[in-house]
């Protein structure tokens, strides 16, 4: 029964927040004006800038931001019990998450649809732009989601075959719609049906001709280390090649159709999960609270603060959202009156996904499966079993969902990473103007930091990636706060969340760096390379964050001095 109460609590709180705090802020602080011309209308070119229906844009924003963070974050945070994670999902989203998403979107809209690089240049300094681009590159190089998906496929290889067929069907959709100009409604219905037929086909094959291969690809506790590393390498190669192809091809041929079809696959799964929760009331088998953790590195249970807030990335707040809002959504916003519906609404929707993920792990009995994908598949399959969905089908569907969510994010992340690197180095080192060259550093970091052969531990890598992503959120709030001050608006709505996120995330990255350095000291061979690289990148990002904060303080001082020098109106 407690699972139903937790779900209803989330729905009620988010509904109240949207209809009170969000609405008041939009009207009285931001002063959104539906009559003000947006960049989408002013610069409409049909490519980057084009006005979009708020309902379509909500779907775009929701799918673009809802990736593996709200799925794996609450699952990894069960280390401290389910209650701390639930409180952070509710409180973080209420006072920090939507604030960042909405204000990042509006800051870009008010700066002619610019992304954070140009905004930082204008508001703060040229050096701030350089620091932000450097940070974005390293953020996109974090392999946390990749390690979790590989962990899922090692336990449930059936998901890898399902995701392969799903992606091929999505590519077929793109060809039919964009090249053959077929009716999008009928094509969508056909391809959605094909996706589920393919999934059932894979499940049926897993009981027959595919069974020996799937058994060979399944890694268990008793699997020899050499074979386990080989299987992990196969999945790494599969996912990286698939992602690189997507990141290099034209968006209409891969990225857009995969993201579009993923929306139906993911949300149909969510609706099935919600239906099972509200009709079967699955019981919680995990404790509400376990421990505040230990400061020692490495620790079986890390300190609750600062590690729990960064473990649950996206479900409460995510720096990735600010990148999506400023790079794409702001160029499609038809009216400022739609901003709270899209910017805040999509974030609160993601909070619901985080709550269902928390429920899916809380229902599992101890001992728990490995962190990440294996836990999510096991928990959701158990819940869906309550509405008579066979465990094999539920497991394949869940593994398919996390795979498609990973690909839809990493293909965008690899694009953003290579573009950031090209902008950083392309003018001085011409070879970095080449898109094929620019993806190589990101992929190499993924391999060296994310593969078990190089010392990667999925749980640790995920938390480090959470610290990187959440510090991006802190930096986004820093830029937004400077913008608020420059407009003579109350700064504390964004400033207080900014301070909390900056302190929390930098502390978490320092803890992660110390953990990886300690593990490197205990290791030998190739593992030392990956662990030291993870420690070095964590340290570099703290330095970049401090540099960005220093530039922001200087900008605020300058803005206040200039404001004081102006005569009263």
CATH hierarchy, class: Mainly Alpha
The tally of domains stands at 1
Which fold name fills CATH's third level, the topology?
Hydantoin permease
Quaternary state of the chains: single chain
- Which outline best applies? globular
* Number of helices, where a helix is a run of at least 4 consecutive DSSP H or I residues: 22
The main sheet comes to: none
Radius of gyration: 23 Å
Low-confidence stretches: none
- Give the helix proportion (percent range): over 70%
Q: So, CATH architecture?
A: Orthogonal Bundle
Q: H/E order of the elements?
A: HHHHHHHHHHHHHHHHHHHHHH
Structural class from helices and strands? mainly alpha
Count of strand segments: 0
Indicate the mean pLDDT.
Answer: 87
Strand-residue fraction? Answer: under 5%
The separation of the N and C termini measures: 60 Å
Please, could you describe this protein's structure?
This protein is mostly helical and 569 residues long. It has one domain: Hydantoin permease, CATH 1.10.4160. The chain has helices at residues 2-29, 39-42, 54-65, 69-76, 82-110, 116-123, 126-140, 144-155, 158-179, 184-206, 211-217, 225-248, 255-280, 304-311, 319-327, 339-362, 373-384, 391-425, 435-450, 458-486, 492-522, 526-565.
Compact overview of the structure:
Helix content is 74%, strand content 0%. It has 569 residues and is mainly alpha-helical.
Q: Could you name the key traits of this structure?
A:
single chain, 569 residues, mainly alpha, Hydantoin permease, 22 helices, globular
């Amino acid at each position: 029964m407690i699972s139903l109460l937790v779900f209803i609590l989330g729905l009620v709180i988010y509904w109240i927040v949207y209809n009170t705090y969000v609405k008041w802020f939009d009207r009285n602080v931001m002063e959104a004006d539906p009559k003000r011309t947006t960049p989408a209308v002013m610069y409409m070119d049909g490519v980057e800038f084009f006005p979009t229906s708020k309902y379509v844009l909500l779907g775009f924003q929701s799918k673009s931001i809802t990736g593996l963070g709200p799925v794996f974050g609450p699952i990894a945070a069960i280390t401290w019990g389910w209650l701390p994670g639930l409180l952070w999902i509710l409180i973080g989203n209420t006072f920090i998450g939507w604030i960042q998403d909405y204000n990042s979107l509006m800051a870009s809209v008010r700066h002619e649809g610019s992304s954070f690089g140009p905004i930082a240049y204008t508001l703060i300094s040229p050096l701030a732009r350089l620091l932000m681009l450097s940070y974005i590159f390293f953020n996109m190089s974090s392999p946390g989601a990749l390690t979790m998906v590989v962990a899922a496929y090692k336990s449930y290889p059936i998901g890898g075959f399902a995701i392969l067929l799903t992606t091929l069907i999505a590519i077929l959709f793109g060809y039919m719609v964009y090249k053959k100009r077929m009716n999008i409604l009928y094509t969508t219905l056909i391809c959605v049906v094909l996706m589920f037929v393919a999934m059932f086909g894979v499940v049926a094959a897993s009981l027959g001709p595919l069974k020996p291969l799937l058994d060979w690809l399944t890694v268990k506790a008793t699997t020899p280390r050499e074979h386990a590393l080989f299987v992990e390498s196969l999945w790494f190669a599969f996912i990286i090649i698939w992602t690189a192809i997507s990141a290099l091809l034209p968006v209409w041929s891969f990225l857009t159709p995969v993201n579009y079809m993923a929306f139906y696959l993911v949300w149909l799964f969510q609706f099935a999960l919600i239906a099972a929760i509200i009709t079967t009331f699955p019981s919680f088998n995990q404790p509400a609270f376990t421990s505040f953790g230990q400061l020692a590195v490495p620790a079986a249970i890390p300190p609750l603060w600062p590690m729990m807030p960064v473990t649950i990335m996206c479900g409460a707040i995510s720096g990735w959202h600010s990148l999506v809002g400023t790079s794409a959504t702001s160029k499609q916003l038809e009216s400022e009156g739609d901003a709270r519906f899209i910017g805040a609404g999509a974030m609160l929707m993601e909070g619901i996904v985080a709550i269902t993920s928390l429920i899916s792990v809380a229902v599992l009995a101890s001992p728990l499966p490995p962190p990440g994908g294996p836990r999510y598949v096991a928990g959701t399959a158990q819940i869906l079993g309550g509405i008579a969905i066979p465990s094999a089908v539920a497991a394949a569907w869940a593994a398919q969902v996390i795979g498609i969510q990973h690909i839809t994010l990493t293909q965008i992340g690899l694009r953003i990473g290579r573009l950031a690197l090209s902008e950083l180095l392309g003018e001085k080192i011409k070879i970095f103007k080449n898109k094929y060259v620019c993806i190589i550093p990101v992929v190499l970091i993924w391999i060296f930091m994310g593969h078990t052969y190089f010392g990667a531990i999925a749980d640790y890598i995920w938390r480090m990636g959470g610290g990187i992503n959440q510090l991006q959120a802190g930096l986004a709030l820093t830029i937004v706060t400077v913008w608020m001050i420059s407009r003579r608006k109350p700064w504390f709505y964004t400033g207080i969340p900014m301070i909390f996120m900056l302190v929390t995330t930098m502390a978490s990255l320092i803890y992660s760096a110390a953990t990886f350095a300690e593990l490197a000291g205990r290791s030998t061979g190739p593992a030392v390379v990956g662990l030291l690289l993870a420690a070095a990148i964590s340290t570099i990002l703290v330095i970049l964050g401090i540099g960005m904060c220093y530039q922001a303080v200087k900008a605020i001082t300058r803005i206040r001095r200039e404001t004081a020098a102006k005569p009263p109106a």
